[in-house]
Write a structure and sequence with these properties.
alpha+beta, UDP-n-acetylglucosamine1-carboxyvinyl-transferase, Chain, binds ligand EPZ, four-stranded mixed beta sheet, 14 helices, elongated
Length: 418
């Protein structure tokens, strides 16, 4: 199992271009089967979640070609409507294929996608949304059989603004005659990007980014060449890396307009941030000030995917902080390892109380989930000595060679066989 070896104590400085967003690429890859024409994505990061999604599409019969960072999907030969069990357990995002497969075949079979370290990750809202479009859902023996023969446009209401469930219903409705309205929809920027992508293929989706999305069915979608939006979580993670090391970095291709909550918190901690369209410059103070309170919420609230990185920053800031994780039930998995590095974090349920310390110390720690692993790397950048972060493969799910990105900013980090 590969690990990252991080030598702490170096300020990060320099400039980097932000990769395109994992959480836009995954639903866009799923939506690419809504047309039988070729879809060309001009810039896809080399992350394992995207590679696994491409493998699932291939198993279902699509032709998927990768050339550098370009990915071409041609689903004319798509024949599979049963999601491969082996892969769908491997990545949660396979559930995004439910809506598009139903749209193509009017039937789908999927296994319960793997939960993961941050929570049970149920799919009841996905199934509720599809039932609102007339899909018959039968669950037996861990398999979910969906019969879409009577599918029709309609109204879907979500008790909770689930990102994936919103995207699934959007994709299921694009080719349904009539108007489908999603109420209490998730408002994440990646959903706006999915709307842009679908409309670039000839779809008629309006309202993404607000709590009400309206999809007017069209007969057919055509192929498209498309560049997904930049990754606001990768951008936030790189800013956090500069912040924890007292450094100064510039980011191009940065989705600054989608990062208001994160930039606000970093400024509260004493960072000076200059923003322009698609550009961010951050200069960190010698020592961060504690932000005091942080609560994660659905967008436009503070993003849960940046909570873990901010906890690492808070652990070395001046003062005390309280972090409440309102979105997932188990997203402090890495606090124990931070404490082994000298942090003083007390977790209880969805709340963590942090007493900032002057110094962290290198240790052998283990990534348990994608963002928790990234947070441990950030702590290693600050720690005195060397930190070994095991299970680098979990970090590779959402960061394209994080070690290369951080090295380009002056960090001393390398990948080793664990
Ligand atoms: C997406 O996951 C992202 N993943 C997550 O990013 C992100 O943390 C999350 O949205 C919230 O922003 C992708 O886009 C591939 P949800 P998703 O449905 O769609 C509960 C990362 O690190 N829920 O909004 O699964 C769920 O358990 C990942 O990049 C139900 O109860 O998020 C969670 O507590 C992690 N029933 C909450 O809602 C459902 O049917 C938010 O889930 C669906 C979700």
């Amino acid at each position: 199992m590969e690990a990252f070896l991080v030598e702490g104590g170096r300020k990060l400085e320099g400039a980097l271009k932000v990769d395109t967003a994992k959480n836009a690429v995954l639903p866009i890859l799923a939506a690419s089967i809504l047309t039988e024409d070729a879809v060309n994505l001009t810039d896809v990061p080399h992350i394992t979640d995207a590679e696994n999604m491409a493998e699932i599409l291939t198993i279902l019969g699509c032709q998927v070609e990768k050339q550098g960072r370009c990915m071409r999907v041609h689903s004319g030969s798509l024949h599979g409507w049963e999601m491969p069990d082996r892969l769908s357990k491997q990545i949660r995002s396979s559930i995004f294929l439910l809506g598009p497969i139903l749209s193509r075949f009017r039937k789908a079979t999927v296994t319960y996608p793997g939960g993961c370290e941050i929570g049970l990750r149920p799919i009841d809202l996905h199934l509720h949304g599809l039932r609102s479009l007339g899909v018959q859902v039968n669950e037996e023996g861990g398999l979910i059989h969906c019969d879409g023969s009577q599918m029709r446009s309609g109204d879907a209401y979500f008790d909770y603004p689930s990102v994936g469930a919103t995207e699934n219903v959007m994709m299921a409705a694009v080719l349904l005659p009539g108007v489908t309205t999603i109420h209490n929809a998730a408002r994440e920027p990646e959903i706006v990007d999915l709307q842009r992508f679908i409309n670039a293929m000839g779809g008629q989706v309006r309202g993404a980014g607000s709590q009400t999305i309206e999809i007017t069915g069209v007969k057919k979608l055509h192929g498209v060449t498309y560049t997904p939006m930049p990754d606001r979580i990768v951008a936030g993670t790189l800013l956090a890396a500069a912040a924890i090391t007292g450094g100064e970095i510039e980011l191009t291709n940065a989705p600054e307009g989608d990062m208001v909550a994160v930039l606000s918190k970093l400024r509260e901690m004493g960072c000076t941030i200059h923003e322009e369209p698609a550009f961010l410059h951050l200069k960190a103070p010698e020592r961060l000030r504690a932000f005091g309170q942080l609560q994660t919420q659905p967008h436009p609230g503070f993003p849960t995917d940046m909570q873990v990185q901010m906890l690492a920053l808070e652990s070395v800031a001046q003062g005390m902080g309280v972090v409440v994780e309102n979105v997932f039930e188990n997203r402090f998995t890495h606090a124990g390892d931070l404490n082994r590095m000298g942090a003083r974090i007390l977790c209880s349920g969805r709340t963590a109380v942090v007493q900032g310390v002057e110094q962290l110390y290198g240790a052998r720690v283990t990534a348990r989930d994608l963002r928790g692993g990234a947070a441990l790397v950030l702590a290693g950048l600050k720690a005195q000595g060397v930190t070994q972060v095991e299970q680098a493969n979990l970090i590779d799910r959402g960061y394209d060679h994080l070690e290369d990105q951080l090295t380009a900013l002056g960090a001393k980090i390398k990948r080793t066989k664990g």
